[in-house]
């Protein structure tokens, strides 16, 4: 009997989690379509076809769901860009191969959740400047991993000691952030600009693409 109750509880918990995700998606769509300042809880529940009571079962206010929208966006971005294997690359070529795959995963996320990512990257920081620091912090963590890998390359003698590791790490994180913006402007832009940007970065850190190190 205990197992049956546990299964029921898990099913109920799953439905509750899904309803919360639905409210977050609806809020993101409404915020993007109408602007955060121009909409309210009534617009969010109307978009999803539920009552106010359902909304307040999960969130206390429009600001509360805003934080959930931003958290969800950051979570999805972090899942695509945080790759533990990145820092364990054997050499610079493998590092940038992994980096390009991360860029591709980020582009796929933007294609899957365009409204959410557009809101998190462009709209949310204008609502609360603190969110700018949070957004930059996500990509900054990625840059820290990259800088540590580059530092190991310098120690091995694979990279020149003159490489400014802090600047290089920031550049890697910044280009990843920039590449996330490309798919929001059209499907061709991501393919046309992402690869040259990665090659440009690769060339600036390790010499011309395809050169011996």
UniProtKB/TrEMBL annotation:
Please tell me whether the keyword Coiled coil is annotated for this protein.
no
Question: At which residues is the DNA-binding region annotated?
Answer: 40-59
- Supply the InterPro entries for this chain: Homeodomain-like_sf, HTH-type_TetR-like_transc_reg, HTH_TetR, Tet_transcr_reg_TetR-rel_C_sf
Q: What is this protein called?
A: DNA-binding transcriptional regulator, AcrR family
- Keywords for the protein's UniProt record, in alphabetical order: DNA-binding
User: Gene3D superfamilies, per this entry?
Assistant: Homeodomain-like, Tetracycline Repressor, domain 2
A single GO molecular function, which one? transcription cis-regulatory region binding
Q: Which Pfam families match?
A: TetR_N (PF00440)
Q: Does the record carry DNA-binding as a key word?
A: yes
Which residue range or ranges hold the HTH tetR-type domain? Answer: 17-77
């Amino acid at each position: 009997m205990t197992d049956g109750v546990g299964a029921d509880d898990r099913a109920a918990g799953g439905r509750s989690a899904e309803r919360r995700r639905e409210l977050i998606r609806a809020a993101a769509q409404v915020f993007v379509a109408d602007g955060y300042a121009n909409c309210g809880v009534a617009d969010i529940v109307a978009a999803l076809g539920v009552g106010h009571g359902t909304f307040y079962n999960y969130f206390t206010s429009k600001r509360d769901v805003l934080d959930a929208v931003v958290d969800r966006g950051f979570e999805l971005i972090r899942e695509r860009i945080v790759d533990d294997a990145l820092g364990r690359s054997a050499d610079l070529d493998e590092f940038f191969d992994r980096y390009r795959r991360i860029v591709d995963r980020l582009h796929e996320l933007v294609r899957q959740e365009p409204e959410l990512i557009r809101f998190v990257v462009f709209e949310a920081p204008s609502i609360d400047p603190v969110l700018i620091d949070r957004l930059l912090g996500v990509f900054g963590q990625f840059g820290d991993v990259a800088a540590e890998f580059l530092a190991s390359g310098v120690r091995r003698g694979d990279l020149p000691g003159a490489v400014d590791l802090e600047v290089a790490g920031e550049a890697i994180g910044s280009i990843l952030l920039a590449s996330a913006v490309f798919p929001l402007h059209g499907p061709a832009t991501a393919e046309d600009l992402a690869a040259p940007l990665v090659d440009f970065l690769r060339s600036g850190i390790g010499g011309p693409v395809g050169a011996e190190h």
